[in-house]
Amino acid sequence: MERFVELNKSFIDGVWTEGKRGRTFEDKNPYDQSTITVFSIATVDQLHGAFSSAKTAQKEWAKTTPTERLAILKKASEFLKNNREEIVAIISQETGGSNIKANVELDLTLAYLDASFDLVDKIDQSRDMSEKDGKKNYVYRLPLGVITSISPFNFPMNLSMRTIAPALALGNAVVHKPDLQTGLAGGSIIARAFEVAGLPKGVLQVIQSDLQELGDEMLTSKDSGLISFTGSTPVGKHIGELAGKMLKRVALELGGNNPFIVLADANVDRAVDAAIFGKFIHQGQICMIINRMIIHKDVYDEFVEKFIARVKSVPYGDPKDPKTIIGPLINERQADKAMSFIEEAKAEGCKLALEGKRIGNLLTPFVFVDVDNRSKLAQTELFAPISTIIKADSDEHAIELANDTEYGLSSAIFTNDLDKGRTLGLAVESGMTHINDQTVNDSPTVPFGGTKASGMGRFGNDWIVEEFTITKWISVQTNFRKYPF
């Protein structure tokens, strides 16, 4: 782990580079506040240099063969696999996530990287769409160019790799900024993997800096053709506004208020199992996390009783303990914010069936029942181990409640009637619906993304190809063409 902790610099034009701002950022373990490493802050000028060199490097990278790109991607994957134990430890310590969460994150990272192997031959291929009268038409798919990537703190390695790997496989260069709170897992380790793999310098740039220094410069570079961002809806809207003015593409995965619907015919015990995982993995700090449990009145009391009984036994504490499930929130500010949601809900009369406690940045579970779907509590993305349970009068009412939100990322429906589940799933206004499962699902081979205020664009093969490439039409006139004037 020590050798990764030393990667506390930006990776610019193939060189590990000290930030020139003269400020530093302490990357701390959110559980015990111990310092993991200290990053030096890169400047705007260093960022501009990274974009410029990425633009130059991309032109040569785009000329490489599928075989050459595949070899580098495979070597990067091997690096991560060979250093699994140390990487899992860093993910856990930086994010405050459990051992289970850290292993899941690395597995997803590798899944996205390995899936990118299938994309290396998707560019430069042509489709012959010839017409009569001596004209031949060819349609090519070309690299987009330079892609801006910005990743969050919750699943930093996975949410960085799902942009970086396909972008590189498709012949693009990437300028990437991770959240400094998880700068190692979200940036430096990925840069090291591709450095060891032999990626040409400049093709991947990793900038360790902050909003105070960079402002909107990550978004407004003329050298970038697309912004890939995972984070909050307000920030996503700001990115969309700036990108729209520049006619720049975006791939945005934003906030969620994900409903977990349990119908009258559902197996309640299995629904409770799914709800425990889908609510409390990584302390609820996932965009896809269950935010509202919408339970049919016929099974409401049974579900509430069994859910609360299970919640009381969920282990919490230091993520270094392999038995821990609930660890700390990412920082004190997030813990304060979560507690403010709880206190405001209590003041507004929301019924608290299980009251948790705060231990530093760690919150044990809180469970609110009989929640009004229009309350602030139900309409807020909580990002914490806070459960809200809502009663539905019918199947149709459950769907109505599920859709009564500005968000539309993930959702889930529990029912023993699978045909009904699929039909109702189509009626839920979200990008993804999971029948007899919970809301936190990801895969590199499905169209991952949301609707409404939860974002735009789709990750995953082959949908990501459309996002990260340009379609080009070439026509060849083989016979002399007669013009009307």
Order of strands across the biggest sheet? 14-17-18-13-12-20-21
Whole-number mean pLDDT: 96
Contiguous low-pLDDT stretches (5 residues minimum) are none
What is the structural class?
alpha/beta
Radius of gyration: 24 Å
Judging from the principal axes of the Cα atoms, what is the shape?
Answer: globular
Q: Total number of helical segments?
A: 16
* DSSP helix fraction: 25-40%
Strand residue content: 15-25%
Please tally the β strands and state the result: 24
Give the terminus-to-terminus CA distance: 73 Å
Largest sheet: 7 strands, mixed
Short description:
With 485 residues, the protein is α/β, with parallel strands linked by helices.
Q: What are the salient characteristics of this protein?
A:
21% strand; alpha/beta; 485 residues; 38% helix; 6-stranded mixed beta sheet; 7-stranded mixed beta sheet
How are the elements arranged and paired?
Layout: H1 2-5, E1 10-12, E2 15-17, E3 24-28, E4 35-40, H2 44-61, H3 66-82, H4 84-95, H5 99-115, E5 126-128, E6 135-143, E7 146-150, H6 156-169, E8 173-177, H7 183-197, E9 204-206, H8 211-214, H9 217-220, E10 226-230, H10 233-245, E11 249-253, E12 258-262, H11 268-280, E13 290-296, H12 300-311, H13 332-347, E14 351-354, E15 358-359, E16 362-363, E17 366-369, E18 386-392, H14 395-403, E19 407-408, E20 412-414, H15 418-427, E21 434-435, E22 451-452, E23 455-456, H16 463-468, E24 469-477
Parallel strand pairs: 7-8, 7-10, 8-9, 10-11, 12-13, 12-20, 13-18, 17-18, 20-21
Antiparallel strand pairs: 1-2, 3-4, 5-6, 6-24, 11-23, 14-17, 15-16, 19-22
Helix pairs in contact: 3-5, 3-7, 4-5, 4-7, 5-6, 6-7, 11-12
